[in-house]
Amino acid sequence: FLSEAIRVEALEELASWPRPSGRDRVLGLWRPLEPRPAEVAANALGPVLEAILKTAPSRVRIAAIHAAARLSIREAGEALHGILVEKLLPGEERAEALRAREALGDARLLDAARKAIAGDEPAVRIEGRRILARLRPEEAAGTLAAALESGSTIERQGALASLAAMKDAKSVEIISRWMDRLLAKEVPPELELDLLEA
């Protein structure tokens, strides 16, 4: 078998196949290419994608998930669902699977986001809240407010980013309350910049 680094590089090359960078990945020279049909890369990856998602090391699986999303390989939906619900897999990998399901327009995305929020991994909960905020902002406001109160630092930062993206009355109200807390110097320093950006 080839090394993980080579396998990741190959998957990244496939993911960027439709619109490749103008920079040659080997020599670093500027050699722009015209856009190419995504189907060529999708047809190359499709037959081996499920095996990669089931047996490859984590870095390779993450690259394969990303490639499946970029190439719109909808047949990957079941395998992505399996990764998302497998609690023994790293959170980064499961979060990437949830992002890919969103990119592929998965019909069960709302249910997946709700389950992700109830999960045990911060990275997965952050993605679940972000997706819920996009699909059901009225439902997401409560869970985002709760994450701001009691989540880990990264979850609180993710909640602020999701609230900023919502742009509705409830999210403005939550951010305004936190701005009042900032003025009263009751906001942890690690959240101040995120709050100001929100």
Describe the 3D structure.
With 198 residues, this protein is mostly helical. Helices cover 71% and strands 0% of the residues. Helix 5 (91-103) packs parallel to helix 7 (122-135), helix 7 packs parallel to helix 9 (153-166) and helix 9 (153-166) runs parallel beside helix 11. The radius of gyration is 19 Å and the shape is elongated.
In brief, what are we looking at here?
By secondary structure, the chain is an all-alpha fold.
Provide the β-strand percentage band: under 5%
- In total, how many beta strands? 0
Q: Which structural class should the secondary elements be placed in? A: mainly alpha
Radius of gyration: 19 Å
| Largest sheet report | none
Tally of separate helices: 11
Distance between the termini: 46 Å
Low-confidence residue ranges: none
Shape: elongated
Order of SSEs:
HHHHHHHHHHH
| Quaternary structure annotation | single chain
Give the overall pLDDT as a whole number.
Answer: 95
Report helical residue fraction. over 70%
Features:
mainly alpha, elongated
Describe the secondary structure blueprint for this structure.
Layout: H1 4-15, H2 38-55, H3 58-70, H4 77-85, H5 91-103, H6 109-117, H7 122-135, H8 137-150, H9 153-166, H10 169-183, H11 189-197
